[in-house]
Design brief:
Layout lengths: L17 E6 L7 E5 L5 E5 H6 L10 H18 L3 H7 L1 H27 L14 H22 L9 H28 L10 H22 L11 H23 L10 E2 L1
Antiparallel strand pairs: 1-2, 2-3, 3-4
Helix pairs in contact: 2-4, 2-8, 3-4, 4-5, 5-6, 6-7, 7-8
């Protein structure tokens, strides 16, 4: 048992408290267990502390709005690749559905980033390289911007010689960003690079996002355009997008409830 708190902890330990354990993947600290002077055992987690909307009277704070934006964006990507939807609305409206979905993803991505940097006193932007959640948020936000480029290009008839540069490459890079960001978020939630915690909401959220990113990656593989302007595997591209978006949709709905205020800022052990 540690009697004094390390100086570089991401939280402020109350005076007289005893630190029991500090954990996290690699060099990052994502959980701290300590006992207060009065004997109350506290388990602080980086994600849990950040996501709890303690200042929101009706708990519909930043976490809820982030989840809502991801939910709406995911719904667009669920509908977009469905042939029946595309036939009903027409190709231009179908392309617009994907673009709107990408903008909603970017909005949610920025809200995720904002929630991280505000913990350190920043207002709109910040740099927090020692925070694992910061890296997940920044990389995810970059991925949404790549999807903005791809889906915006999809609104136009892009010449076949430009398809690779303005359509497929941003799509592939966005998928890689999502995969890396989801792996980091999964590690932050589980306090190690791999964990099995099926009884916890944050585990389900981050695991579903991981699977969604895998499916989006497969979609990017299938969406590669050859020199003639044809997709490598249209079925894989559409199925990957649909299944990935379904995973994101479920995770986003779960996230909307993750911000419910708790009795204490940190959960008791």
């Amino acid at each position: 048992m540690t009697t004094t708190a390390p100086a570089d902890l991401p939280i402020r330990i109350p005076a007289g408290a005893t630190v029991v354990s500090v954990g996290g993947p690699g060099p990052f600290v994502t959980e701290v267990r300590y006992v207060e002077a009065g004997g109350r055992a506290v388990h602080w987690t980086a994600r849990g502390h950040r996501k709890a909307d303690r200042a929101s009277r009706h708990w519909r704070g930043l976490t809820w709005w982030t989840g809502l934006m991801f939910t709406l964006g995911s719904a667009c990507f669920v509908a977009g690749p469905v042939p029946a939807y595309a036939s009903a609305v027409g190709a231009p409206a179908d392309a617009m559905t994907f673009f709107i979905g990408s903008l909603l993803f970017t909005t949610a991505g920025y809200l995720t980033y904002l929630q991280v940097v505000r913990e350190d006193g920043h207002r709109w932007v910040g740099w927090m390289p020692h925070n694992l959640g910061f890296w997940a948020a920044v990389i995810q936000l970059a991925g949404t911007l790549y999807f903005n480029v791809t889906t915006f290009a999809g609104l136009f008839d892009v010449p076949s010689d430009l398809q690779d540069r303005v359509v497929w490459r941003p799509d592939a890079l966005g998928s890689v960003c999502f995969l890396v960001a989801s792996a980091i978020a999964f590690a932050e939630a589980g306090h190690r690079w791999f964990s099995w915690r099926p009884g916890h909401r944050d585990w389900h959220i981050t695991a579903l996002n991981m699977w969604g990113s895998v499916f989006f990656g497969l979609s990017a593989v299938g969406a590669h355009v050859d020199s003639a302007g044809n997709l490598s595997h249209a079925t894989l591209a559409n199925a990957g997008t649909f299944l990935g978006a379904v995973c994101f949709l479920v995770a986003s709905v779960l996230m909307m409830g993750e911000g419910r205020p708790r009795r204490h800022d940190a959960a008791q052990s």
